[in-house]
Design the sequence.
């Protein structure tokens, strides 16, 4: 998931990311076992039971972006299959108070299913309470309101396969440096459910699966604007780094600036999520060797399917994950479509030719 689309951490995220890294799989906010999104699917009988009932859905998003557009597209296509009308679509602009207002507006349309990313666990718990009281089926993207219980207050949480994103990043970096060498590890220095699991999965995979690769430099980052400064210091102290992992694409752009400033064309970089600047470097044969992303369209499809199954009175898994994909120069065009349900930026496509 594009990191700028995650605003609030799930409760106990620090505990859960460690558990995920130890178990080799993504786990939910309360340690729930992950169910693959492919297992959350509507049957023909389900579709028949839903059509013609006048059901309505609301998509209450936290912001507007390529990511949320792709999640919306997946949800809308799944709702359309079931004959469910999208009654309300909102964009809270990362404002928890505005999200609360959006919820009140949406409830006036009496939606049967609501898909949303709660911006703040505490504020969201209050804001969505009326929706629970009204009997709407809630499906959350990545975050969970404080105190909400599965099966009572919400149908499912759906997110990325966070462990696989970190693992695939480790595998890609290892491949690019021939399975041996020294690497730097730039992680997100905050308690964020999504980034913590992804970062720890990278680190644990390197330590477990690649004995000839050593993480010789670690640097936490909370402000992406400081990425170039922090990377420059890391490179000054470790001039022989074979590779660097960066927690997501925005700070990775700063790391690239530091590499260019030092004339370093050999240190390989792997990061998470898709963005034009790092993708351009990758397809032009620069330092970036791979980008690992989620399947955002599939996130939306699974969210809609979980909400509709709950509407039918069927049991739904508490925690659902969509697949991760590794995007390289060779598959950048298809990878962008698979992840974001849109073409890659023209600059990237032109440079990849």
Sequence:
């Amino acid at each position: 998931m594009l990191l700028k689309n995650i605003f609030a951490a799930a409760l106990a995220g620090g505990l859960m990311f460690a558990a995920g890294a130890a178990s080799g799989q993504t786990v939910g906010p309360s340690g729930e076992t992950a169910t693959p999104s492919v297992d959350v699917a509507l049957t023909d009988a389900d579709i028949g039971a839903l059509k013609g009932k006048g059901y309505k859905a609301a998509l209450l998003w936290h912001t507007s972006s390529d990511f949320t557009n792709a999640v919306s597209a997946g949800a809308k296509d799944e709702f359309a299959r079931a004959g469910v009308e999208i009654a309300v679509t909102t964009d809270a602009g990362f404002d928890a108070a505005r999200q609360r207002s959006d919820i009140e507006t949406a409830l006036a349309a009496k939606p049967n299913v609501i898909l949303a990313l709660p911006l703040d666990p505490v504020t969201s718990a209050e804001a969505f309470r009326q929706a629970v009281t009204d009997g709407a089926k809630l499906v959350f993207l990545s975050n969970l309101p404080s105190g909400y219980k599965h099966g009572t207050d919400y149908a499912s949480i759906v997110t990325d396969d966070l462990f696989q994103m970190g693992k695939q990043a480790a595998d890609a970096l290892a491949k690019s440096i021939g399975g041996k060498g020294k690497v730097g590890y730039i992680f997100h220095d905050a308690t964020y459910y999504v980034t913590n699991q992804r970062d720890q999965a990278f680190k644990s995979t390197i330590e477990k699966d690649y004995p000839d690769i050593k993480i010789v430099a670690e640097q936490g980052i909370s402000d992406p604007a400081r990425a170039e400064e922090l990377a420059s210091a890391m490179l000054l102290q470790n001039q022989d780094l074979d590779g660097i992992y960066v927690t997501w694409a925005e700070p990775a752009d700063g790391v690239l600036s530091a590499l260019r400033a030092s004339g370093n064309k050999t240190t390989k970089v792997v990061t998470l999520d898709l963005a034009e600047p790092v993708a351009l470097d990758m397809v032009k044969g620069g330092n970036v060797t791979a980008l690992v992303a989620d399947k955002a369209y599939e996130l939306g499809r699974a969210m809609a399917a979980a909400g509709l199954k709950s509407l039918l009175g069927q049991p739904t898994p508490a925690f659902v994950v969509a697949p991760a994909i590794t995007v390289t120069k060779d598959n950048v065009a298809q990878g962008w479509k698979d992840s974001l349900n849109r073409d890659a930026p023209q600059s990237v496509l032109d440079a990849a030719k």
The chain is about 45% helix and 20% strand.
